Amino acid sequence: MEEFKHLDRDIQGSAKRWKKFVESECPEKEKLPQEWKSKTSLQRLCMMRTLRPDRMTYAVRDFVEEKLGSEYVMGRSLDFAASFEESSAATPMFFILSPGVDPLKDVEKHGKKMDYTFDNNNLHNVSLGQGQEVIAEQALDLAARKGHWVILQVQHTLTKSIQPQHIEFSYSRVHNDAFHTNLFYF
């Protein structure tokens, strides 16, 4: 492409400037070196994809905000209390997370209002993986009997060691056994 002609030569010839840009913590916020700073937003995005693909999520966010407006990149906050009212021991809450989202704070805040805290030992948080399934099942069993809350966290994607049947098994055990009406799991 004509717009990127001689980019390779410029990177070699101005290695210090390009190194500073590439090693920047947030290169998508930095100006490109020399003549490249006058490139369009889309061209900058293409260069970012080549030079720092790990920062594309942030670069695309900035691009969308610049071209469409901040309302298209603003995160929506969850009304956890309203969602909680719609759930029950028979209807758990599932959160599919994206960068910057942490519903654990909302669960803890709402739990505190209802006297469910880690300090009271009636709010349990288990990160699944590496043998934690047994601990998760114990927490679910205890919660089913005593009406505790359980947070089961699956990091990133389901790995081979954490198959969906583990979660389904725990879920069906709670539903098939007698369980406390205050039981909640997230």
Automatic annotation (TrEMBL):
Q: A Pfam family matched by this chain, by name? A: Dynein_heavy
The protein's name: Dynein heavy chain 9, axonemal
In the UniProt record, the gene name given for this protein reads DNAH9_1
Query: Where would I find the Dynein heavy chain region D6 P-loop domain in this sequence?
Result: 89-161
> Gene3D superfamilies annotated for this entry?
P-loop containing nucleotide triphosphate hydrolases
